[in-house]
Amino acid sequence: MPMRKFIIGNWKMHGAAAEAHTLVEAVAEAAAKAPQAEVIVCPPTTLLAQVTSWLVGSNVKTGGQDCHAEAEGAHTGSISAAMLEEAGAAYVIVGHSERRAAFGETNDEVKKKAQAAMGVGLIPIICVGETAAERDAGKAEEVVARQVSESLPKGHFLLAYEPVWAIGTGKTPTARDIESMHAHIIAVAARETGLARERIFVVYGGSVNAANARQILATKGVSGVLVGGASLKAEAFCNIINSSE
Ligand code: 13P
Q1: pTM, to two decimals
Q2: Tens digit of pLDDT for each residue in 93-146?
Q3: By three-state DSSP, how is residue 150 classified?
Q4: Nearest atom of ligand 1 to the alpha carbon of 166
Q5: Measured on CA atoms in the order 83, 147, 181, 197, is the torsion positive or negative?
Q6: Is the dihedral of CA 15, 19, 23, 24 positive or negative?
Q7: How much is the pLDDT for 1?
């Protein structure tokens, strides 16, 4: 278990420069008082360089929300890992369920994106998680194991367990379910990569808020949280950072 907990904000397609500035100033202040937390914000790509520049001198890092698997080319609208790195990112989310669903991203593509990210020194945050139908059918562990084993690159990565049914719904799995799925993910990832279990870090995402963060962060096998909606509200996200003690 690492000493530090990852507190990651995924702003998704939200945020204009003026409100983002106020938000990151508050986040930087909270992070300065929380050396036990590795705080990362993932703004929309248009704000990445600006947000990174506002955070110079703080201990908050930035990340992209997606990258293309190729270094460059005729891919209108896409962003390469090197472009994110140049804009100041240290991390990049890949394989978020919203992209898997809306853009049909496969495990193989997610793995290629993660490899591209690592190739330029970014740490990929690889998202996995089952849908409600898969959980109801008793297939959650099988689906997640396949996503983990087919999406993992060789190298330094973070995994995020985000059950699709918990994203933006206010529903969260029980602590027991989070603990058992994280143990499962760690076991599969250790088997696939040959890494020691202690070297595999899995953060939880899906309806994390100021009220439930402390309990989730204290759950065995949870190395941090990936926060959507609550990462856009300074008070809520700062409370989550404080919950990482
Ligand atoms: P919410 O925290 O809004 O449920 O979103 C979770 C998520 O998708 C983070 O990547």
Answers
A1: 0.97
A2: 999 999 999 999 999 999 999 999 999 999 999 999 999 999 999 999 999 999
A3: helix
A4: 4
A5: negative
A6: positive
A7: 42
Active site residue 85: no
List the catalytic residue out of 68, 96, 182, 184. 96
Domain range annotation of the chain? 102-195
* pLDDT score at 144: 98
CATH superfamily of 102-195: Aldolase class I (3.20.20.70)
Rounded to whole angstroms, how far apart are CA atoms 95 and 35? 29
CB atoms within 10 A of CB 95: 26
Exactly one of 85, 105, 162, 182 is catalytic; name it. 162
Instruction: Work out the angle between the directed axes of helices 17-32 and 45-54 (0-180°, nearest 10).
Output: 40
Strands (E), 3-65: 5-10, 37-42, 60-64
